[in-house]
Amino acid sequence: MWVVAIIAAVAVAGWFAVSCSPGGSQAERPVSEEEAALLAGMRVKNLDAAPVALRMSLPVDGETLTVEGYLDWQVPMVYARVPDGAGGYGLVQAVPGLIASRADDEAAFDEVRVPADGWTTRAMLSGAGSSLETTLDILVSSLFTLTAEEADDPAQLAEDAVWREEGVIDGEAVDSFRAPIMVETEQRPAEGAAPEALYSLDGEGNLRRFQVNTGAESLSAADFLREVAFDPAGLVPIDLLGGPRLDPVAVDEDLAETIAHVRSENWTASSEVELTVPVGDDQVATGSGSVDWRTMTAYLHVSDASGQRLLLARPGGFATLAAEDGELPETPPTEGWEVHRLGDEDVAESFGAVESLVYRLLEMAAEEPEDEGQVAETASLLRTDGTADEPVYVVEFPVNGDAEAEPGRSAYRYHLAGERLAEVEMMTYYGVASAEVSYEDYEMVAVPWEVEEQIG
Questions:
Q1: Which domain of life is it from (predicted)?
Q2: What is the reported pTM?
Q3: Is 263 buried (19+), middle (13-18) or exposed (0-12) by CB count in 10 A?
Q4: Is 2-235 CATH 2.50.20?
Q5: HSE-up of 234 (CA within 13 Å, CB side)?
Q6: How many CB atoms lie within 10 A of CB 234?
Q7: pLDDT by residue (tens digit) across 166-212?
């Protein structure tokens, strides 16, 4: 979906009105067979390439801003330090469809290191709040179209692409081509011509510059500084953007056995819980409290842009109570709760990402283990975190009739440490929500009887 959105955005920006005519370059001509083949292999070549330093040029409000950054082709992810228009800077990190921002940390950026905290997320394009953010969103999203697992069709490019001019970029001789933005067939516009971009390639087929119209008088550009050496180990997406790269594989017998018993191990357990949930553009809700699978009760203190509230949830519904103190009372207050039964027609109006994650936590208990054979067929190991001695397995598997999804595309994923559940992650429109679990024996929460009789 993000590819379709970015193609539409570039088309709306009006590429065809900007620097497209032969008068804007040396005399344009059709590409040769060799040039078409070079263009066709560019995106596959990028996918296999090491992370690269970037220099982006953004035309914004009559001036051109220079943005330094880094691109990991394989995640894909962009990490950049962006002028804020008031003499300062901020850090941004982007993956397809999402962009995160935080206050500047020049030292971390110089070390090619992503700070772990202080970030908020927003949806690309729809969440942009300024012309700078819109311009950055279009260019960065366009960069994510520059990789592919298979070569593009050289015959099609021979028809659609034109050679524009020769040039030199960072000391390397290049040829510049005008061509439609290259995407997979199923992601191309259903009607009309695809928006175009300029691709400048060196003699080896390496992309040295990419230019696209973002709606200004001149084109936005990204130069790929392939000779700049740096350690890419710190280029890791933050947790709100999904964390390190996923590489889904089938689970082995031992891991299948662990997954099969994860929920049944929780049947008589209770745990502390810490929530981090992106709930809107640049808005992150946080929560802390407990989940008690013995009584199927979650009890938390939640903070977000609208204030603080207490949250009680059981299988039949949930209840909220406005709070002013930042602490979770040991015993829930007896009065003032607003109750929402899950069967009520209007419950969706009050049921958001926080509630969705809380209910998934409640579902992480079962009286009996799962069938190990079925788990082996349906579960995937997405990556392994932690250490060799204390690995943390990030997995996905269907729970209670979850919709089928390709490996790595499930709405939920689970971190398993020491054969127990350590964290639940949930994909949302604004990023990845997290519930960290820390097992501890709790006294059962005394749910007020007026609430209990309505939510179970």
A1: Bacteria
A2: 0.90
A3: buried
A4: yes
A5: 16
A6: 15
A7: 999 999 999 999 999 988 755 555 555 678 999 999 999 999 999 99
